[in-house]
Amino acid sequence: MNQALRELESVAKVCTLCRLSETRTQVVFGTGDPQAELMLIGEAPGFNEDQQGEPFVGAAGQLLTRLLAEIGLAREDVYIANVIQCRPPNNRDPLQDEIDCCKDYLRGQITLVDPKVVVTLGNFASKLLLRTETGITRLRGRHYPWWQGRLLVPTFHPAAALRSGNRLIAEMQDDFALVRQALDHPRQAPSAAVGADVADEPEQMNLFA
Question: Which of 147, 117, 31 is nearest to 80 (CA)?
């Protein structure tokens, strides 16, 4: 991990900016290759992540590892993070003020890792980062030009796919094939296009405006 990313993690580990600091077991910062070309972003830590201090562990993490292996990547080759760093009680969706308090940690991780491709895992992260009300079922199946020349590929959350059976897993496999194609494509120059339905935004935008 590079020094700047290590320093950001140190700040996050003692963060008390929102109410989640009162109920978490520990902060779950991103993990993986600090120079990864691929970054995966979920919603928030769940129970197992809160206990172990690492994103996407347990069955959902095993599925993610399998999907990565199918496109020639190990978990250690990518960087995995969440929109927020602490588990919301009962795994509820993060509230807007919690997102606002945590957004600089995610922005910092994206900036410091500087991935070519970002994969959003699940409805919440996909809608938030693409700044759209369109649901994941309609969003998935393509990639989108995103912040600072990156490509963003939305797909289902692995936990949702495990609950729903083979159909969603097959669709996730299709999405990860798109990820492989995006990784093999030259990175585009930064442009103003930032989301599924957004254009003409300033380059130094608020990721969650």
Answer: 31
**163 inside domain:** yes
Residue keyed to tokens 């993690």: 9
Burial 92-125 (b: 16+ CB within 10 A, else e): eebeeebbebbbbbbebbbebbbbbbbbbbbbbb
Alpha-carbon span 155 to 67, nearest angstrom: 12
- 128 in Cβ contact with 196 (< 8 Å): no
Rounded CA gap, 104 and 81, in Å?
13
pTM, entire model: 0.90
* Among the listed residues 48, 54, 65, the one whose alpha carbon sits nearest the alpha carbon of residue 29: 54
| Domain assignment present for 196 | no
Express each pLDDT in 156-205 by its tens digit: 999 999 998 789 999 999 999 999 999 998 887 765 444 444 333 333 33
- b/e map of 24-46 (b: 16 or more CB within 10 Å)? bebbbbbbbbbebbbbbbbbbbb
Q: Domain count of the chain?
A: 1
Question: Residue 52 is part of a domain; what is its CATH number?
Answer: 3.40.470.10
